[in-house]
Design goal:
The complex is a heterodimer. Chain A is an alpha+beta fold. Chain A folds into two domains: about 60 residues, Arc Repressor Mutant, subunit A, CATH 1.10.10; about 80 residues, Glutaredoxin, CATH 3.40.30. Chain A contains seven helices and four strands. In chain B, about 45% of the residues lie in helices and about 15% in strands. The chains are: A alpha+beta, B alpha/beta.
């Protein structure tokens, strides 16, 4: 049996089999495996006695519940108005140059995924981004270099 | 330019009482009628943006029969330009949990939830620490009301209360038909009070100060203070607690960079006020209401770009459930691009305005209904920027 099945069994034990447990379970699978595979969603559906379509429907609604493989570190750069005004374009360009990928792509070593996202709530300190759940604000080109270099060595 | 500075208020972020959870303890021994009376007297209106009187909401829910009721704190702060709930949850989470616990007592709920947007997951460890303390104290006080934190996963629409319930129930965050309202049918179809983070803190402050002192802040229509999120072209971006009912002109005098062309009040779903109207605009329920978002734009900014950014936002965040919003947002964005490029004549903007007005009356929820706010206020006031 694949390890993923154990993970889902554990999560079902932890959160319960109610429909209300669905979001927490999906969230934790994404946290541990970086995305939700078809197999995982089918397994969750079976455990919660839902149709696979219901689980897939919920998962695909939310932008943070990724249903395609992501890197270990998912970078989400805010593209909403004040971050955009304060130089988000240059930040994206720099990230693309450093990681050698375009927005929406994952590095071949599966370490980084680069995405854009809507307002992160750091409008007063834009531009801002999240790496997984950790926020970084007041971004400058130098800071981007420092932060990404650090993550590259992690 | 006026001389007097806008009055700063130190209510929401003021220090905790010396004794832990003192205001909560003092309030729990009062009768529900007294608490409700104070809330109604205070004139407090919801701080999420819509401004429904909080006391009424609680009263309706308390009066709805049922053994199973819920309290939900809406911390799905996603409106562009708003970041005040993050600040409140960072600095004074105890006040939020206390406000929720008081609500639990008044409406007869035993369970509360804080729905935290996924973007703020980094706050979770500290919130859970405070929550442990809360649970310890509520046990000591004999108050049977527990609070659980649920996370969102990056969907703006879940800030809409019924979409938030759908999300908590494990569904797509698609808003429900109203009525029924949450006061009779909310989470799991049970009577539910759902309030914004800041509203719960205001409740606690009313309990601490009493309604008479609280009412001294603000104006008749907009009682109390408000936490503002100030961003954009300003030398001093950040969080400011100010009295409600202030003239926009004075706000711009204080926060602008001397070249302010427009202020977006209430985020992308709010109104864009141009310079010539600063003087006659009041920030509050009697004028332009806001959930706290104040974004300043100076004359170097293209209002076309601003509007395009908003429409892209709405297009992505529309849940797609109803046609006016799903298709309307796309068509508005495509429409202004076509006019800008010269593919459509400038009179096409009038048609787009009609479309946004139709969305206002036909969209199912606040998202689709409010797109017209920023759309018409930007297109009307900055028409030349849309065309040339």
């Amino acid at each position: 049996m694949a390890t993923s099945d154990y993970l889902i069994q554990d999560l079902v034990e932890k959160y319960g089999r109610e429909r209300t447990s669905l979001m927490p379970i999906l969230q934790e699978v994404v946290q541990q495996k970086n995305y939700l595979s078809d197999q995982d969603m089918t397994e969750i559906a079976k455990e919660l006695d839902l149709s696979a379509a219901q689980v897939f429907g919920t998962a695909t609604f939310y932008s943070f519940l990724d249903t395609e493989p992501r890197g270990k570190y998912v970078i989400r750069v805010c593209k909403t108005i004040t971050c955009d005004m304060h130089g988000k374009k240059l930040i994206i360009q720099t990230l693309e140059d450093m990681l050698k990928i375009k927005v929406g792509e994952t590095t071949p070593n599966k370490k980084f995924t680069l995405l854009e996202t809507n307002c992160l709530g750091w409008c007063h300190e834009g531009p801002a981004m999240l790496i997984n759940e950790k926020p970084f604000s007041g971004l400058t080109l130098e800071r981007i270099h420092d932060i990404i270099s650090e993550y590259m060595h992690k | 330019m006026s001389d007097a500075k806008l009055k700063r208020v130190d209510l929401i972020f003021g220090e905790y009482s010396n004794v832990k959870y003192k205001v909560l303890a003092d309030t729990l021994i009062r009768s529900n009628e007294e608490i409700l009376k104070d809330l109604l007297d205070s004139g407090l209106r919801g701080r999420g943006g819509a401004g429904f009187p909080t006391g009424m909401k609680w009263k309706f829910t308390a009066e709805t029969p049922g053994n199973e009721k819920y309290v939900v704190c809406n911390a799905d702060e996603g409106e562009p330009g708003t970041f005040k709930d993050k600040e409140i949850l960072t600095r004074v989470p105890r006040k939020v949990f206390s406000g929720m616990a008081i609500c639990g007592k008044v409406i007869g709920a035993k369970k509360g939830f804080l729905y935290l947007r996924g973007e703020y997951k980094f706050l979770l460890p500290d919130l859970l620490k405070e929550l442990d303390q809360y649970h310890e104290f509520s046990k000591q006080l004999g108050h049977d009301f527990s609070i659980e934190i649920r996370l969102g996963s990056g969907a703006y629409i879940c800030g809409e209360e019924s979409a938030l319930f759908e999300s908590m129930e494990g569904d797509r965050g698609e808003p429900r038909n109203k009525p029924p309202y949450p006061t009779t049918s909310g989470y799991l179809g049970k009577p539910t009070v759902i309030n914004n983070v800041e509203t719960f803190v205001n409740v606690l402050m009313i309990m601490r100060l009493g309604p008479d002192q609280y009412k001294k802040l603000g104006t008749t229509d907009s009682r109390g203070s408000k936490v503002f999120s100030v961003s954009g072209d300003t030398p001093i971006p950040g969080i400011y607690e100010l009295e409600l009912g202030m003239p926009l002109e004075r706000f711009v005098d204080e926060f602008g960079d001397g070249d302010t062309k427009a202020v977006q009040v209430g985020g992308a779903s709010g109104f864009c006020v141009p310079r010539k109207k600063f003087k006659d605009t009041v920030i509050g329920f009697e004028g332009v209401p806001t959930g706290g978002s104040m974004m300043l734009f100076n004359s170097s900014r293209s209002m076309y770009n601003v509007l395009h950014n908003y429409l892209e936002f709405f297009e992505e965040e529309s849940c797609g459930q109803c046609t006016p919003c799903r298709v309307g947002c796309q068509q508005l964005r495509k429409g202004i691009v076509a006019v800008k490029k010269g593919d459509k004549k400038s009179v096409y903007l009038d048609q787009l305005m009609k479309l946004s007005e139709s969305m206002k009356i036909t969209a199912k929820c606040g998202l689709g209904q409010s797109v017209a706010n920023s759309f018409s206020s930007i297109v009307n006031n900055f028409k030349e920027e849309m065309i040339y």
